[in-house]
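FAQ: What does the model actually see?

It sees only this:
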Amino acid sequence: MKGRPRQRYAVPDLEFFAEITSESAYWIGFLTADGCATARELIVVLKTEDAEHLRSFQRALGCADRPLAPANAGAGRRLAIGCAALARQLHAYGIVAGRAHTHPGVLPHLAESRDFWRGVVDGDGSLRVDSRTGMPSLLVVGPPALMQQFAHFLSGVFADGFVPGLHRHARSDAVRVVQVGGRRAKAAVAALYADAGAPALRRKRERAARISAWEPQVYSRYPWDRWGDGSVWRLRRGADYAVARRVWESGRRAARTRAKRLRFRDLGEEIELQFVPREPQRSRPFGADVSQ
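And it is asked to produce this:
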């Protein structure tokens, strides 16, 4: 009895990755984060809700006829493309199986590509908006060498040239974490997702749109010009200043740049503060009652 004939699928377009374009750079970044290339096969597993993103990749590579198999007890979808020539192409870009901690980083022209890094963020990044404060953040996890390159890329995005630090991951010493928040998160997201026609994971593009619409609230909520008059101010948590500690601290740091020294006392649900000139001069005693 003869077995069933072997299913034949379209051969992937090897020209797609032969030249670095905006689209191919994105998918190289995405596969760097979420793909695995063995000697003869490319494997990608995503959540079931992101299955359409896998199909977009299939269409770009010219092999849309391949099925997506269930994975992770139905919670995911698995794409497998058996092609030794494609695997060799991806190996040249550092997309290999295992040993993430030894990843040497990517080629210089990819390290400067916002499309490549958008792919990495879509694969192994997190875009968040705090449910209480609305504060945005961007977090990416990856091999140390790759994250060092990402930090360098971000330093070119930020107006002040700030270089994010690399932090150890709580569960693995093989990877590092790059994280930025607030204005820097908004600037990074704008640089990565501004082009609406460029490939991107749908749910992360939607989150990026929310972050791009975010406006800092520190200066409008905190009247530093009034509070910095030398008086002692007693402020109530949640009424006169935001409950979120990091929002308050960012404003307090900004106010301290005004050549004034800050006296500060935490009273639990209230705080007392007083800005005094750095040059010695007479001022009201700290703790004196001052009408707001």
